[in-house]
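Hi everyone,

Forwarding the result from last night's run.
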Amino acid sequence: MKYKFMRDNNNIFHLNRMSEVLRVSRSGYYAWLKRPLSNRERHNAYLSDRIRSIYEQRKQVYGCLRITAELRDKGFSCSKNRVARLMRKQGITARTKKRFKVTTNSKHHLPIAPNLVEMQFNPEKINSIWTTDITYIATKEGWLYLSVILDLKSRAVISWDADRSIDENLVIRTLEKALRDRSPSSELILHSDRGSQYASHRLRQMLKENNIQQSMSSKGNCYDNAPVESFFSTLKRELVYRDNYKTREEAKQSLFEYIELFYNRQRRHSTLGYLSPLQFENLKKTPN
């Protein structure tokens, strides 16, 4: 409709110019503006406000699928196509990905564990397979190295640590936190790449003492540890690339807020039916 176009674009084009091009009168346009909105127009306006609110609350990282899931949880009946259309109208788009480069120091002569996971990323139980890796974050003080352990079933970050040094101590502290917080039962697998930190004698001894089977990715296959690499990609796109950290401590505080308050508790995960990791875990704990 011509009048609708004029209303939606009056902040871009001058009203007189639009009236001339569309061959309508300004008086007719003003009369149309005074008409009461239809029920659908009112609902679209309210829905647009909710979409904008969710988008801002979720750090501007949600696309139409996650926003649709959030709206449905709040009792709104709407399709993903309608949400996508209203998002486009407001110029709302999720932050796009940057290319993520996987780096692993596997040029060592330490023992390599067999691949027990073999890209089977949906185990039956929580705390049956953990996957781990290290990434780096730039600060004006220098690199900060982040070590994480994810539960492969819930995709929750169950433990993390960050330090200026990338060595076996970093991964050992991360594992110690996971064992303390989770107290896993037997038959647990820890899966990683072939990095020297994971092949170290101290880490292998720690796994043995806690009856944890060690698993490592196949040589040259970066997809063998895809879930944790995907987390790092998401973390960098949604947080790290949007900030310019002055100090390592500032970066650590930012990581705490993202991982503990947003990612684990709020961010909806597509592989979990658009539940957050801890929502998914709590649902699995609830008896049928």
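The beta strands are 129-139, 142-151, 157-163, 188-192, 212-216.

Cheers,
N.
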